[in-house]
Amino acid sequence: MRIEEVQSTSKKQRIATHTHIKGLGLDANGMAIALAAGFVGQAAAREAAGLAVDMIRQKKMAGRAVLLAGPPATGKTALALGIAQELGSKVPFCPMVGSEVYSSEVKKTEVLMENFRRAIGLRIKENKEVYEGEVTELSPEEAESTTGGYAKSISHVIISLKTVKGTKQLKLDSSIYDALIKEKVAVGDVIYIEANSGAVKRVGRCDSFATEYDLEAEEYVPIPKGEVHKKKEIVQDVTLHDLDAANAQPQGGQDILSLMGQMMKPRKTEITEKLRQEINKVFFFLTTIFFSFLGSIKFG
């Protein structure tokens, strides 16, 4: 089993001009609060942006856009970031400045297209077979190294997962042990392991350890219900740029990005216009199948 590290395509966050903006600062009636969520003043603009947020949540803004026009340094980007904060982290928001467009190597249209595709999000749901539970035992088994000498290597790892219904002991490959170490899994953590790819995800610390004092701030989660071996719906929020990058540099694995990469197998490692058209073709094909399936369902 081969495990490869997937590089992140999201931009690195930094302390910038608008990092103090946490929302639009509106009350329950949609009226602007004088000093709230990092905003001072701009009451009329914030209330108008709140109306746009309500329309987006009601799914009445599909295929439409909001244009914020005005002189420089009047708060246009702050309003856009406030709208993004109100919609939540699942909605992609891609800020950019004019200096990013000018480059001697990349065309202006290429930079704009990349940022547009960073701002178009997709939500993909997959049903996967996983082993999920609280770790009650984690013991790697050593064996003599194949190179000889006194060195030893990890042959396999024994892990016990506990749920409300019972406990199951698993014997995993040594390659999964590296993933456990990378996720910093310890006894008392709640994890799940994908049966097909061997990917390990640490969900958090079991809430039975919430009374213990620790220097690190942990996220405590309840012990999983049901059986250890189950089918779980995994939701992935990606953007069109993520799919472009996954196809330009395909990775091995069973997730949706890797499957898209294996399906097309591009020769070049750059994001070309032909590659983007193939991504759009596959995406719209899957969307058409989904809506035709919904249309064939008869209710009542």
Automatic annotation (TrEMBL):
It comes from the Eukaryota. The keyword Transcription regulation applies. One of its GO terms (molecular function) is ATP binding. It catalyses: ATP + H2O = ADP + phosphate + H(+). Pfam families: TIP49. The keyword Lyase does not apply. Residues 14-282 form the TIP49 P-loop domain. One of its GO terms (cellular component) is nucleus. It comes from Zea mays. This is RuvB-like helicase. InterPro entries: NA-bd_OB-fold, P-loop_NTPase, RuvB-like, RuvBL1/2_DNA/RNA_bd_dom, TIP49_P-loop. Keywords: ATP-binding, Helicase, Hydrolase, Nucleotide-binding, Nucleus, Transcription, Transcription regulation. Its EC number is 3.6.4.12. It is found in: Nucleus. Belongs to the RuvB family. It is an enzyme of class 3 (hydrolase).
